[in-house]
Design goal:
Helices cover 61% and strands 8% of the residues. By secondary structure, it is mainly α. Helix 1 runs antiparallel to helix 2.
């Protein structure tokens, strides 16, 4: 597990992803406000959306095109297996959750 405490300035692609993620979170929060009665459960749902948006933003900024995997047993760092581009993964995630 890798923990980052330093500030990371997003690249233009990452900034675009962050904006898209925030727009989707706002849309979802509006849907909850529209379709769910006021009360502690809908308030909790709103808080969870805010938390999810925060973690998604961190994930978007932490994403690196060539990730490195550190095997904790051998202490050897190596590239992870190939994975789809960030934009491709984001579009699949958005399509899965928001149709």
């Amino acid at each position: 597990m890798f923990v980052q405490f330093q500030h990371q300035t997003p690249t233009p692609a990452q900034q675009q992803a962050i904006e898209e993620l925030r727009e989707r979170a706002i849309d979802f929060a509006k849907a909850i406000h529209r379709f769910c009665p006021p009360g502690p459960v809908s308030e909790q749902a709103q808080l969870k959306i805010e938390e999810a948006a925060m973690w998604a933003t961190k994930a978007a900024v932490s994403w690196h095109p060539e990730p490195v995997y550190r095997n904790e047993t051998t202490k050897v760092e190596s590239p992870q297996p190939p994975r789809p581009s960030f934009e491709h993964a984001l579009s699949n995630l958005v399509a899965e959750y928001f149709g």
